[in-house]
Amino acid sequence: MCGIIGYIGDKEKKKIIIEGLRELEYRGYDSAGISVFSDNELHSFKTTGKLINLEKKCENFSSSGFGLAIGHTRWATHGKATEINAHPHSAEFSNIVHNGIIENYAILKKDLEKKGHIFLSQTDTEVVVHLFEENLLHLKDSTLAFKETIKALKGSYAILLITKKENDKIFYAKNGSPLIIGTDGSDIYFASSSTPLIGLVKDVCYLEDGEVGYMDKNNFKSLKNIIPLSGTKISSQKDGYRYFMEKEIYEQHKVLQDTISSRILEDKIELNLPKDFLKDINSITICACGTSYHAGLSAKYIFEREAKIKTDAIIASEFRYSNPIMRKDELFIVISQSGETADTLEALKLANKNGLKTLAVCNVENSSMVREAKYSLLTRAGIEKGVASTKAYATQVMLLWILGIYIAEIKQSISKENIKKQIKNMNEAIKATMINPKIHDRLKKLSKRYLHGHGFFFIGRDIFYPLALEGALKLKEISYLHAEGYPGGEMKHGPIALADSELFTISLMPKHLLFDKIKSNTEELASRDATICAISQEIIDIADDMVLIDKFDSYMEEFFAMMIVLQILALEVAIRLGNDVDMPRNLAKSVTVE
Ligand code: M6R
Fold first, then answer.
1. Average pLDDT, stretch 301-330?
2. Share in percent of the chain as helix, strand, coil (round to 5)
């Protein structure tokens, strides 16, 4: 989604901004721009498409000495992905970049138009810079004018503004969208996520909602909650893989080891989560979006089966406006790779407001959700660059499984033998994510038979139903083919009407969970001429195609093995179709608007 970078200092500003934006590239965008303020001049460059276009556009520009700079990658919300709609937006003598959505922009715009302001873009952002200049006209003080401007805004925003009236300050405001300020001890850096700041700065401040002000080279210390920025720059190489997504699929067995490390011992589970916090809970609500929601839905099956605790998994955007009933004895879990997804974050805030016990299962340390939740558990997947989530999902499911057994132990709803068995299965499940090259080859060959038709059903039962949802989502995200996930038993209640030979059914058929049931459901489809591709460790006679996984002793091992098959199948279909696997059309890695 949109990305922001800002800089105050003496270094080559264009370079710093573009390198920062490049670190945010994987998050998805459709246009980009920068503004540099030096020698009393504002220089702006904007383009549609990739950063390389922006680099070309400003290749002859450089600035030396002290100055200010802001940059932006835009994922269109208001107005198409055109050069005019790209940020920074300008009024007469000021430029602005903005992440988020200004909900009341239309009223503000009308008002400003009456006062003679002329707008060039279709964006909500452009009104903010005009409003600032209008306020400055009356208030004669940039800081007051900026604060007055921010007061008038409704919606979510992370904003940086530079103006020719102040040659050493960048104005900032944050509400709902992340914004970080960092320093190396001398220069000042801004970014909408910590990734571009790693290696550049020593200390950072994650701004809180409602913070508004200006930053120059001397007032960093006045910020609240300054903390050191840990972490080392990870390799942004594909290491011989064709796409980051492929690399991330292959990394899963390794990151899963990190997820379990120091958390599962031979016969018990240790989580950095006080037992008192979980002791009195009587139900669990899980809130998340997209793939993280699918991980949450899997957890429902585990929590209810092992911990015997009533669990609901709800899509965050649905939860927020449904006047949900919230009980104080309820554990409220949010799941998120980024920790910044707007709907999930707002659901978490709502739960906190209502006094629930809140827990974030998240991949990003210091993200908004980790800071907002009472407790958090990190999934330890490492930075995930592919927009289509793979290793983050695997680590979420694993961590939630661990949590389920931990809660079961606290609630005394699980025997010592079963804990041991679960731990053994967890270790085995990680082994099941080691990719057998023969299976990858098989999927590569198979993928050419699944490029046409009028759609895909992914079916599964029990915990394999959310896995079917996830398989369908992976395929549609990167191949743009229509795919739906269904519980196997639901097909005859309507969807089976679509069955014919051009309707491809990917059936998840674990030997160790409801095998006969899913077999019947698959047969029902086969007998209506649907093309069946079965994923199983058993040979399935009625299938047109088969992906045979290795022999496993538990259904969770089969779960993780099938997860790999679904990810690779989506990858290979998308590659054959010539799509940009890592940055699929219309999608963003981190969805910070609702
Ligand atoms: O960062 P989050 O886990 O909160 O993101 C939630 C979804 O936007 C995300 O899982 C999305 O569905 C992915 N593109 C899935 O591959």
1. 94
2. 40, 25, 35
Domain ranges of the chain: 3-228, 239-434, 435-581
The reply to whether ligand 1 has any atom less than 6 angstroms from the CB of 477 is yes
Active-site residue flag, 589: yes
Task: Assess whether the C-beta atom of 590 lies below 6 angstroms from ligand 1.
Answer: yes
One-letter amino acid for residue 497 of the chain: A
3-228 and 239-434, same CATH topology: no
Q: What is the pLDDT of residues 254-290, one digit of tens each?
A: 999 999 999 999 889 999 999 999 989 999 999 999 9
Q: Taking the model in full, what pTM does it have?
A: 0.86
Query: How many angstroms separate the alpha carbon of residue 475 from the centre of ligand 1?
Result: 14
Is the pLDDT score of 26 beyond 90? no
Per CATH, the homologous superfamily of domain 3-228 is Aminohydrolase, N-terminal nucleophile (Ntn) domain (3.60.20.10)
Q: Is the CB of 292 under 6 A from ligand 1?
A: yes
Ligand 1 mean position to 289 CA, how many Å? 6
Q: Which two tokens stand for residue 218?
A: 């001397």
Least Cα distance to 70 among 86, 84, 85, 88 occurs for 88
Q: Which atom of ligand 1 is the closest one to the Cα of 388?
A: 16
Measured between alpha carbons, how far is 171 from 154 in angstroms, rounded to an integer? 18
CA of 119 to the centre of ligand 1 (A): 34
- 257: Cβ contacts below 8 Å, ≥ 6 apart: 430
**Quick one: average pLDDT of 501-524?**
95
pLDDT of residue 594: 76
- Mean pLDDT calculated for residue range 541-567: 97
Q: Is the pLDDT of residue 484 over 80?
A: yes
Interacting residues of 283 by C-beta distance below 8 A, sequence separation 6+ = 309, 310, 311, 312, 327, 329, 330, 331
- Residue 236 pLDDT class (50, 70, 90 cuts): low
- Is the distance from the beta carbon of residue 341 to the nearest atom of ligand 1 less than 6 Å? yes
- Is 1.10.10.10 the CATH classification of the domain at 435-581? no
CA 72 – CA 4 distance, rounded (Å): 5
Q: Is residue 316 in contact with ligand 1, taking CB distance under 6 Å? A: no
The answer to whether the Cα torsion of 317, 582, 196, 338 is positive or negative is positive
Ligand 1, atom 12, lies closest to the CA of: 290
Class of domain 239-434: alpha beta
| Whether 310 is catalytic | no
- Amino acid at position 217, single letter: K
Indicate the top mutation candidate among 75, 195, 287, 291 to test ligand 1's pocket, ranked by most ligand atoms within 8 A of CB: 291
pLDDT in tens, 35-81: 999 988 999 999 999 899 999 999 999 998 999 999 999 988 778 88
Three-class SS state of 25: helix
Which tens digit of pLDDT belongs to each residue from 75-121?
A: 887 788 899 999 999 999 999 999 999 999 999 999 999 999 999 99
Secondary structure (H, E, C), 337-394: CCCCCHHHHHHHHHHHHCCCEEEEEECCCCCHHHHHCCEEEECCCCCCCCCCCCHHHH
- pLDDT at residue 87, rounded to an integer: 96
